[in-house]
Amino acid sequence: MTPLLSFFHPERLWLLGLVPVLLLLYGALLARTASRSRRSGLDQLAKVMPKQAAWKRHIAVVAAVISLAALVLAFAQPKDAVDVPRERATVVLAIDVSRSMEATDVDPNRLVAAKEAASGFIDMLPRGFNVSLVAFAGSSSIITPPTQDRGLVKRAIENLDLAPSTAIGEGIYSALDAMLLVPPDPDAPDEPTPGAIVLLSDGYTNIGRSSTVAARDAKESGYKISTIAYGTPNGYVISDGRREPVPVNPAELNNVARESGGEAFQAGSRDELERVYAAIARSVGYEQVDQEVTELYAGIALGFALLASLSVLSLAARWP
After folding, report:
1. Closest listed residue to residue 237, CA positions, set 247, 229, 250
2. Which of 204, 223, 259, 270 is disulfide-compatible with 252, CB 3.0–4.6 A?
């Protein structure tokens, strides 16, 4: 279970032990005062404003203790995970161009709509990202190696053509080959560039190597695969004058995402596909890093310290 709050210096939290000690001391003083009042009666100040002084005194003490606790939390430097844009990464976009992508259950057909959405997806990625295009059907190939030339990749997407059969595993292996072509970071040439694979298909493997094994190899290489099962259960194509059903089959793609540590998506229309691409663009374009949030707790401490001060000043005020 993830902790609700974590700290850069948790060893400093032992100072929170002062809070119950102070509360116990205050409780002991209240008990001592009450006992003395029962023995000797009310003093002159208690006769003037006993109830008003009591609740103000309680507020002052409680506010001061809460302020102390918030200061201790701030001193321990609390942290929280925030989304920070990546400056550099590589995304390999693998698109199924098998003949089933000609189905018109998505207007005007699956492939045309997928091309348009893929071009929009590329525009969503940070400018410093490298993008590569892989196309697969019965075989697979790297259409464009990793590059920051978005126009080149978009033109390659527009020129994708249909081919027979589906080899999802081969598409994954071509994506891994594309990752090997990533140019090194000039500022850190020995460090691997983070990357992700986005794979869109409407069917299942009927030729080539296993997609399950390929997904596991991708995970071992450090690359997650986001899969998109694209199409509807009502898709069909016309082959030799006959109508052949080509319903979308998400089972294999779900398995690929799971085995690689990625996430599986489904889209049955162009609008849904655009929303999926937007979600993926955000997930690969940002990374979660621990960021200090000391200011929040310092502000809480200041607010309760101010409340305690006002309560003390009110106790000392002379009312007409």
Report:
1. 247
2. 204
Residue type, 254: N
Cβ pair 217, 223 in contact under 8 A: no
User: Per residue in 52-86, pLDDT tens?
Assistant: 556 667 777 787 778 878 887 887 777 776 655 56
Residue 98, strand partner residues? 163
Residues 6+ positions from 165 with CB-CB distance below 8 Å:
98, 137, 138, 206, 207
If you search the block for the tokens 């902790």, which residue do you land on?
3
What is the DSSP code (8-state) at residue 167?
-
Q: Which tens digit of pLDDT belongs to each residue from 234-243?
A: 999 988 889 9
pTM of the model: 0.68
Q: How far apart are CA 75 and CA 232, in angstroms?
A: 55
**3-class DSSP string for 18-86:** HHHHHHHHHHHHHHHHHHHHHHHCCCHHHHHCHHHHHHHHHHHHHHHHHHHHHHHHHHCCEEEEEEEEC
